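LAB NOTEBOOK - FOLDING QUEUE
OPERATOR: T.R.
BATCH SIZE: 2
PURPOSE: Compare the predicted structure-token outputs for two unrelated chains run back to back under identical settings.
PRIORITY: normal
REVIEWER: second-year student, initials M.K.

ITEM 1
FIELD SEQUENCE / FIELD STRUCTURE:
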Amino acid sequence: MAAGVSWWRSFEAKVVALLMVVGLLCIGGSAYLLWLSTSYLDARVEASIGRAADLADVVRPFYRAQMQALAESYRARAQALDARARAEGWSVERWRAVLEETPDLAEVVVDAGGERRTLRAARPPGEDDVSFAATVPEGADEASARLVARFVVDPAHDRRFQAVGRVRRALRVEQRQLDAFQRAVVRAVLLLVGIVLVAALALGVVLARTVTRRVAVLAAAMDRIEREGEDRAIPDLGRDEVGRLAEALRGMLERLEAAQARVSYLERIGAWQGMARRIAHEIKNPLTPITLAVQQLRDKDPGTDPAFSKTLRTAVEIVEDEVGTLRRMVSTFSRFAKMPKVRAQSESLRRILSEFERAYGHLTDDERDRLEVGGPPEDLFVWVDRALLKLALVNLVENAVLSARGHAAGGVHVRLSVQPDPDPSFVRLLVDDNGPGVPLARRQAIFDPYETDRSDGTGLGLAIVKKVVLDHGGDVWVADGPLGGARFVVRLPRASGSDAGDQSDGSSNGER
């Protein structure tokens, strides 16, 4: 977390809060839908239970009255049997006949011959049958009653009555279960809300820290770059948006570093050009008087002393040779100081290489030396100043020849070829030689002006090459070559064939 930023204002807190809000909204929406559904279903169920309970309450008194009427009919029948038995003086056998004639009469208890006897029907009721005992006189207990008649109640009446009771009990159970279910749903929803909030909080913290940790790493890297300016390494942060941001930042820093190096180099080249201009001016001015003076000395020789004349001629020749060397150096300095601005246009690379091969096909007078030029497989167009590009190629080839001279036993071999660049908007020109190569420690310094390891070199050839290439919006570097020596890679911007003939008014970066 950045210094001075409280946690509540941090990105991590915002992600956590967002996830919790989303979780609450989801749970709230689900709970609301659940409440609507359960309210509707509860209302329907409660209405159904209420209607069933009302119906059971209506039916139960009806069946109760029916059962009471049935009991009254049994009592009346018992009283009628008692009256007939007294009037007719029924014997035990007569009572047995009555039991056989009356299907629902299961048992009678009577006083016969001075003793109390219990008579049962031939087919006694089952264990599950419901019976009703009617006593005479009414209200007497069975032990003291004159007559006890036990009738078997019709099972249909009992089943209907019992069914009504079971329905009422079941409705009460259903109502209790419905209330318990509603309470369970409320508890489950509350528990789910708590679980989701805790999970959202934990997930938010993990996710936020996963993201913010990488953002913090990125911020620390940027802070380190800002403070130190040297270590510009951006770590790999994955393949998501943060990773792509780090990759884009890495590419931006690389391009910025390349642009800074380019600007720094061009600034140094500009300073060196100014110095070369002054040096050329300071050296060129006294060369003519020196030349005239030594010529006068040689012309004034009286010739009286042969030894003196010989010494004088030798001195004059040495001075003239050195003056010629200085003139060539001054000419090189002047060319370096007065390099023209780039006037780029779309040029055929095949044409440029063909013209270069015709002009410089013979490197030296040694027949073993050879220049191999390989054109592109297809006609590519580059956005260049043709004259300045040829100047750069000449300097590279001459540098390769001078480096390989004396090192390659079988003669100098220089190869000029074309290679595609990973960026399709650029193309590469490769100059390979069979010389000693360039040590890794010198590969940056060799492009600096006056940097040379040859006693007769000015160290301006490669500096001119790099300035020309940078002015075209390209780049140049050195690596190991397949011929055993160095490989100079020139990276140039491509152009379309339709742009041929279009020219730029000397933009120093080769822009159209």
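ITEM 2
FIELD SEQUENCE / FIELD STRUCTURE:
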Amino acid sequence: MTTLSLRQRIALELHRQLLKEMQEMHPLRQLFWECTLRCNMKCRHCGSDCKVSAEQRDMPFADFRKVLEDVKQKYDSHKVMIVITGGEPLMRKDLEQCGRAIYDMEFPWGVVSNGYLMTPQRIESLLESGMHCATISLDGFEQQHEWMRGVPGSFRNASRAIEILAKEPQIKFDVVTCVNKMNYGSLAELKEYLISLGLKEWRLFTVFPVGRAAQDPMLQLDKEQFRGLMEFIRDTRKEGRINANYGCEGFLGEFEGQVRDHLFTCQAGTSVGSVLIDGSISACASIRADYTQGNIYREKFTDVWENRYQPYRDRSWMKKDECKNCRWFRYCLGGGMHLRNGDGKLLFCHLDRF
């Protein structure tokens, strides 16, 4: 049973009021573009089951450009970060041209990448195209990372990209690590390795059971390991040598305020929107078709953003099943939207891991 200090309760109550205001105002701050489903990895935990040759063609940039033109008419483009994701965005040979066009429209932009194709030359061309931020995945040392990613050489290439990007002061850069049974015991050594590469920002997350990950017990931490992960992140933050954060997946009870730069909130549909590969308008790119709100090929993105997203902005419908009588619902609001299936059922609760 989780317990909270008086200080945590006060902070959570204040945060609760701020979140209500955010939901009412819903300022668009991040817009994900799922530009491709092609990928050069065979990741064990992939939720979208991407392939090198995807059945769904890449979205033409001209189609996404219309979305940006619509957004720019209504909102301050300087305050909306465009995050290009996939699949693997660098599979697109026109990524730099897309990035330059986004930059010329006065939107900051960045990529989420596995790092395999991030050669020094490619990084230079991305920076010249105005890239503002980047996220690279590294899931442990060579054996652990390539067990997860399924491609020889992926650890070497990702490490090279991290070392280069960590030295670029003009961009916001972090590394994400999927913590699982294979790499859990090496987190302290991995921390030292990342520090040696010059990394300042490290984001750790755990797998939620969808896609390929649902049937792989090696990807799921047990309760003792999950608590150990929280303690590791808390202690790493206290050290101050690298800024570690747990992902935004769920409410963490006694660890709230200790393992993230912010208290738990799911910003999907409140400040985060997305355009998926088929034109579907959604929120966080981890949330699939069950909660799409429209489609750019039928309607304007801004009309949808302003007038829909009720399931995201009013989470009272989540107060059912195991959440119905939970005393922490006022702070958790049912957890992250990506943890709900198409019927609205919660896939798992983080508090059950303690």
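REVIEWER COMMENT (ITEM 2): Residues 40 and 280 are 24 Å apart (CA to CA).
FOLLOW-UP: none requested
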